[in-house]
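Here is a protein:
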Amino acid sequence: MQRDELELDLPPAFEIGQKVRIRKLIKNDGTFPGQEIGAVLAKKGEIGYVASIGTYLQSSYIYAVHFLNTGFVVGCKKKEIESVEETP
């Protein structure tokens, strides 16, 4: 994606219900209620499922990822998550 392209010009990279893995440590930046600022919300490598898809600043998608082990639903950018392929 070029600098002048908007992510929203393309379809979402992930689908609702898709299994994803966190690519980096996610801490509370003050937007997650009930947790202290700086509290760890998801650790690198944790698995979750895309619960919904929203937008941020009319330029990018935000994926609400539900982590079953903590019950947290955390907003993640595309660069923060990756698809987990199911193996039969």
User: Anything to note?
Assistant: The chain has one domain: 18-83. The chain has a mean pLDDT of 89.
